[in-house]
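Same chain as my last thread, 132 residues:
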Amino acid sequence: MIEKALLAVIGLAALTALTLMGVAAAGFALFAVLAPLLGVAGAAATLALVCVLILVAAVFAVRGKGPSLPPALQQDDSLAARAFDLARQHPMAAGGAALLATLAAGVLAVKNPKVIATALSAYLAGRSSGRH
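reply #2:
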């Protein structure tokens, strides 16, 4: 189970890094195309405007399309049901909170090497016992 969680985190980190790299490359390419035409300041302003327009389009696309509650939580007033409802109402804030939680967990793991050592030893112990 820990192995799958670690692989999921590694895969998510790799996809995030590749996405950020692609976005940065696309932004640089747009800047390089516009710089001779509009000047450096004009190209930077146009790039910023394009980024804002993409962000606004993403917000409108995500707005109101949060995941529905699982059937077990639909009639429940528990903390989990309220959290799902809040995440559905504010998907961008929920995504930001998830990103912050992931960042905090990463910082905690880096500042406390015992966490990394424990996770690594659990991963290697599961691997050596033949369980995947």
